[in-house]
Amino acid sequence: MTNTNSGAQVQRTRHQIPGFDPHNDAHVKAVEKKVSDAAGTGFKVVGFDPATDTVTFERTRAVTEVVAEKGSTRLVASLRTGAKPSDGEREAARLENQYPGYTMTRFEPHLSSAVLEKLPEDAVRCREAVATALSVKPWDVRVAARRGGGFVLQLPKAYMPSKHDEKLAEVAQNVVGLPGWYVDADAKSLRAQIIPAEPPTFPAMIPYPFDREIPTFSSPSDTDWTQAPIGCAIGRPGEETGPEFRLDLRSASHTLLQGLPMSGKSVNINAFAYWMAQTGAEIAIVDTPDKAVDFEWLRPYVRDGGWGCESYEAMVATCGMVYAEGKRRAAVLKKRGINNWFSITDDPSFRPVVLIADEYTGLMTPERVPKALPKDHPMRVEAEMTNGYKDMVATFIQKISLEMRFVGVHVFVSTQLGNTKTGVSTALKAACGNRFLMGPNASDNQRANAFSAPDSVAVVPENVRTTAGVSKGVGVTETEGQPSTVFKGYFASTDEFAGRLARSSTVRRTSRPEPTRAEIAEHTGMDDLDEGSGQLGDDDPWNGRRVPKAASDRVYSEDGTELTGAAAAARAAKQAGA
Fold it and tell me: Are 414 and 257 in contact (CB under 8 A)?
């Protein structure tokens, strides 16, 4: 304990000042300043004798006798006479040199005193770091050890959460603590704690929450179905588990999911598609034929004609049918004077429609056209026709994303790289308000390509990136209406998803998953239909797997090679035109 004897010493001086006016404040202050400059700061006028023009000045000096007993941790000391608020650093250096082992923790020039305390070295380091983060003096911050580790802080009035929290977090994790330590601050009381904790992480696998209740679509205005759970966001410091991450289709209609192979894109698509199927949405899928097997579990539940995975012609038809449905809805809304489908309460035909385009990179990469071959050579014609179909698919998807935002049509594009070279146009990317980048080690170039504001997007923490199993299926988000976060997708096998859908009595089932030949002909513009039948003829040249029934139906190139599929169609059209 410290015993302190305090007192005050009054210094007095008298001066003859002819013409002194005690009632003129400006004159009095000018005289006080002149005397203080000559005799030392702090002198004030306390008396005036008009008979002799004598002015009396006084100043009071605090005199503090410090007795530091054994074990003392706190003492009060006097400042130099006339110390000003700007003299804090000078006084701290003087007093700390005078009292070794003590640190100045309060500086009160108006009381001509300072408080010094014995602080542990780590507390002094913490105080200095916090003061630097807040751009204040060290004695403006109070620091004490916290029970259980860390520190208790009393912050200055200059503290502002929006301005200083990130800097304080840096102090906690990188200056006085370790990754995972965090700051819990109360802006009203200006009290804060730096709390030790392990850095937040994920389990190796987060199972899909099948036991949760899934809302069934009733009308667009009842929007519970728009919150599609995808996985879990990483926890905040000090939390064992983070909140559920949901894709909000009300805030943004379209989604762009990017990531290299094996980064976890399919896991997210499956979780999203399962939720939408359970709510009663109409689902359409386009995918390359060799990858379509990934979605066979969903095939019985697509909208009629929504399985565009068997050929590029089928993809065009599936996308065209979704676009046509969007145009129908737009016309209905216009007729009713409604500009957003979420206002619809009385039309059950306005179900959400989801168009999933998987492996967009492979889907849109043009086929190599062997231009050295004759223009009617089967290989060249086939490549050119395929590229034409790809262009039609890309055109439909872009038109849907740009024109059908407010009619209940949602586009979900999955791709390895989202740029113009891989078919993801600038317009399509801009239309996707929800963006994900999967993978724990995305490069700066990948982030710049994936997001509109990459510097504002969360970064996967090092402890998650470098832990086997934990890092699998991790990604970052940039979504409308939600802060960017690190998340990990819910996982279930496709057999589990399929089994749940099969046992459901409310899930919508398709009557014909693939587009009909008539639908393919309509949306590809190839109207070679049998008159009156409404179907393509039996000798359909668009399907290369069909064998003509008669020799007269066969189509040959100029060198006598029999043509099939798109090549046969092109050759037949050329011959008809001739």
Answer: yes
Under a CB-based contact definition with an 8 Å cutoff, are residues 185 and 135 in contact? no
SS3 assignment, position 480? coil
Kindly give, in sequence order, each residue whose CB lies less than 8 Å from that of residue 364, ignoring residues fewer than 6 positions away: 390, 393, 394, 422, 423, 424
CA atoms within 13 A on the CB side of 364: 26
Q: Are 78 and 120 in contact (CB under 8 A)?
A: no
Closest to 397 (Cα-Cα) out of 291, 284, 295: 284
Beta strands in 353-408 (DSSP E): 353-357
Provide the token pair at 325.
Answer: 């449905």
**Tokens read off for 384:** 């050119």
Would you say how long the chain is, in residues? 578
Read off φ and ψ for residue 99, nearest 5 degrees. -120, 80
Query: How far, in Å, CA of 33 to CA of 358, rounded?
Result: 82
Which pTM does this prediction carry?
0.72
- Extract the tokens encoding 205: 């696998």
Q: What is the pLDDT along the chain (578 residues), one digit of tens a residue?
A: 445 455 556 778 899 999 999 889 999 999 988 888 777 677 888 889 988 999 998 877 654 445 444 455 788 888 887 788 889 999 999 999 989 999 999 998 888 889 999 999 999 999 999 999 999 999 999 999 999 999 999 999 999 999 999 999 999 999 999 988 999 999 999 999 999 999 999 999 999 999 988 998 888 888 889 999 999 999 988 887 899 999 999 888 899 999 988 888 999 999 999 999 999 999 999 998 888 888 999 999 999 999 999 999 999 999 999 999 999 999 999 999 998 888 888 887 889 999 999 988 888 888 888 888 888 888 888 888 888 899 999 999 999 999 988 899 999 999 987 777 777 888 888 899 999 999 999 989 899 989 999 999 999 999 999 988 899 999 999 998 889 999 999 999 999 999 999 999 889 999 999 999 999 998 988 754 443 333 344 444 434 433 343 444 555 666 556 665 555 555 655 554 44
User: Nearest 5°: CA angle at 104, between 102 and 110?
Assistant: 145
Closest to 425 (Cα-Cα) out of 453, 447, 393? 393
Which residues lie below 8 Å from residue 27, measured CB to CB, with a gap of 6+?
20, 21
Q: What share of the chain is helix, strand, coil (3-state, %, to 5)?
A: 35, 20, 40
Distance CA(94)–CA(97), nearest Å, equals 5
Sequence-separated (6 or more) residues with CB below 8 Å from residue 306? 282, 283, 284, 285, 318, 321, 322, 510, 513
The residue type of 210 is F
Tokens at 364, concatenated: 């849109």
Contacts of 90 (CB under 8 A, 6+ apart): none
Contact indicator for 170, 156 with CB cutoff of 8 Å? no
Q: ∠ CA 468-471-475 to the nearest 5 degrees?
A: 170
Cα 499 to Cα 274, 297, 300: the distances in Å are: 11, 9, 12
Dihedral sign computed on CA atoms, order 76, 79, 83, 85: negative
Gyration radius of the chain's alpha carbons: 39
